[in-house]
Design goal:
mainly alpha, 12 helices, about 0% strand, globular, about 75% helix
């Protein structure tokens, strides 16, 4: 396998699995185990993460613009209308929800990487993800953007922190928690992916400068760009598809997939 094809496949896997509740990190671990290869380092992670971020911003561009405008008018034009206040509260709760993953990632990130990144962990956590998705498959909440509480944001943030463990899907964990808290499916989906924005930006700001000193970036710039493009396109396509799946209430199919892959991993790779 050429390095170009290798990075293309990794970009496709990362991009397609990032939005949907089947764990992108878990699938990269499985890919590594199946083909007995070493996953690329920091440069690859930053490139594909940035690509997925841009795809999310593209899909939700109207919502992003509305929130930015609302925050601007609130801060500088003293707008206190109901619609503006709902948006400002939404932004504040998003920031609160990102704190648990950030704190726990700093405290336990190295330990998780050393002890819970094996393929056996991925198999069991995929099965667990499937069970969680099955449990909430028929839930329909009533809370919209304005109904999310501080408690909701903290609990959804803790669910996102659980996804530090490979095999637990970030989108799956946050959406499951949101639906358990009585939040509407559309709002749960939007809140989940808006949580991805500050987390991803934080990763880029913290690790991005290393790109300029990392020899890997210069040596593999072409393959990295291929992975970036693949990740952007597949994230956008997968997210639009997932929105359609959520609207139809067909999360059970992701349960079946997680169970099938998780069981196969435990039986044959663990």
């Amino acid at each position: 396998m050429t390095i170009w094809l290798f990075y293309l496949l990794l970009g496709v896997i990362q991009g397609f699995t990032e939005p949907i509740p089947i764990s992108s990190s878990g699938h990269l671990v499985i890919f590594q185990e199946l083909f007995n290869i070493q996953l690329p380092g920091l440069s690859f992670e930053i490139f594909v993460n940035f690509a997925s971020l841009l795809a999310v911003l593209t899909i939700y561009r109207k919502d992003v613009v509305r929130l930015v405008v609302s925050l601007w008018t609130f801060l500088f034009k003293k707008d206190r209308s109901d619609d503006t206040m709902v948006d400002v509260k939404f932004i504040g709760l998003l920031l609160v929800a990102t704190v648990p993953a950030g704190v726990l990632g700093v405290v336990f990130g190295d330990w998780i990487g050393e002890t819970l990144s094996g393929v056996a962990t991925v198999g069991y956590t995929l099965i667990l993800t499937g069970l969680a998705l099955w449990f909430i498959r028929n839930m329909r909440g009533s809370k919209g953007d304005g109904g999310i509480t501080l408690r909701d944001a903290i609990l959804i943030g803790l669910a996102q922190a659980a996804a530090l463990i490979p095999g637990i899907s970030r989108s799956g964990a946050t959406i499951v928690m949101a639906l358990l808290l009585g939040i509407k499916q559309e709002t749960a989906l939007r809140f989940s992916f808006f949580m991805f924005i500050p987390v991803s930006l934080g990763t880029i700001l913290l690790d991005g400068p290393a790109l300029f000193t990392n020899p890997e970036t210069r040596e593999l710039f072409g393959p990295l760009i291929v992975a970036f493009i693949a990740s952007y396109i597949l994230t956008a396509v997968s997210l639009k598809w997932f929105q359609h799946i959520m609207a139809k209430g067909e999360l059970k199919y992701f349960s079946f997939y997680c169970w099938a892959v998780g069981i196969l991993v435990v039986l044959f790779l663990a």
